Amino acid sequence: MIKAGIIGGAGFTAGELIRLLINHPEVNIDFVYSTSNEGNTIGKVHQDLISEDLEFSNKINPKVDVVFLCLGHGNSKAFLSENEFSTKTKIIDLSNDFRLEKNKVFNGKTFVYGLPELNKSDIRQANYIANPGCFATAIQLALLPLANAKLLLEDIHVNAVTGATGAGTSLSATTHFTWRDNNFSYYKPFTHQHLGEINQSVKLLQDNFNAQINFMPNRGDFSRGIFATHYTKYDGSLEDARQLFSNYYKDAKFTLISKEDIHLKQVVNTNNCILHLHKHEDKLLVTSIIDNLLKGASGQAIQNMNLMFGIKETTGLKLKASYF
């Protein structure tokens, strides 16, 4: 059995990881690290896990087989500077600390960007993974087939909305129920931090890409999920585009293409990304949907872990949505 540790165990992504790992047939949770919750049972924070007797700890086991870093952005580097793990311990970081090429090497560790639909062979050989961002996952899965075919020639326009869990557990003026309920807003227009990794992946497949990705992120008044639309100029037919996407994702276990219109309930509580294509005059519209906490975070982290340990990629992950 794989021994796993979780660092920063009180947040939304850590809660999802615990739920997945408890039910993973190849994994035992060795520790869940949280200095603010030391001695509390997991169920005191993640209240649906009331039957679990696992407790938060302020100690780590440096010899676990895999450790997941569920820390705030910028904190993973600090934690790894202060805490040593065995050279055999695989690390999967869910922050943005190591996603960009300029930051991928840290303290002798080289982090591989953990988007399986882009880097599956490298992930299988990796010891350290930089798990992609949630918006970045939804947007890249909509664009990679076009980039791979060198067809992103003009500006791309992206409008994406995420649920309240995308903001994490810390309270702010825009996360209170009274503000979020029955409300809608944008934030960080054209400057969202995930643009760096999106552009990096696109240029990896299409090195001559020099257009703009105009990204408008939005806050929705629902708990979880990302609904993203992307459009750009495309000269081929709709059938050409469908074939292009089908070929690119023919071996992808969790990325599906639908001929019917799509909506968030199709992916909530799954590790799936569903894509839909629509052609209007000379524009191709690509819609993508994911669960921000699963395919956009913890589910993808488990998918990466499975690949790293040579386990069947879908092990411990849901492919069917809880529709109602």
Automatic annotation (TrEMBL):
It is an enzyme of class 1 (oxidoreductase). InterPro entries: AGPR, AGPR_AS, AGPR_dimerisation_dom, AGPR_type-1, NAD(P)-bd_dom_sf, Semialdehyde_DH_NAD-bd. Catalyzes the NADPH-dependent reduction of N-acetyl-5-glutamyl phosphate to yield N-acetyl-L-glutamate 5-semialdehyde. SMART domains: Semialdhyde_dh. The active site is at residue 134. It comes from the Bacteria. It comes from Mesoflavibacter profundi. SUPFAM superfamilies: Glyceraldehyde-3-phosphate dehydrogenase-like, C-terminal domain (SSF55347), NAD(P)-binding Rossmann-fold domains (SSF51735). Belongs to the NAGSA dehydrogenase family. Type 1 subfamily. Keywords: Amino-acid biosynthesis, Arginine biosynthesis, Cytoplasm, NADP, Oxidoreductase. The gene is argC. Pfam families: Semialdhyde_dh (PF01118), Semialdhyde_dhC_1 (PF22698). It catalyses: N-acetyl-L-glutamate 5-semialdehyde + phosphate + NADP(+) = N-acetyl-L-glutamyl 5-phosphate + NADPH + H(+). It is found in: Cytoplasm. Its EC number is 1.2.1.38. This is N-acetyl-gamma-glutamyl-phosphate reductase. One of its GO terms (molecular function) is N-acetyl-gamma-glutamyl-phosphate reductase activity. Residues 3-126 form the Semialdehyde dehydrogenase NAD-binding domain. Pathway: Amino-acid biosynthesis; L-arginine biosynthesis; N(2)-acetyl-L-ornithine from L-glutamate: step 3/4.
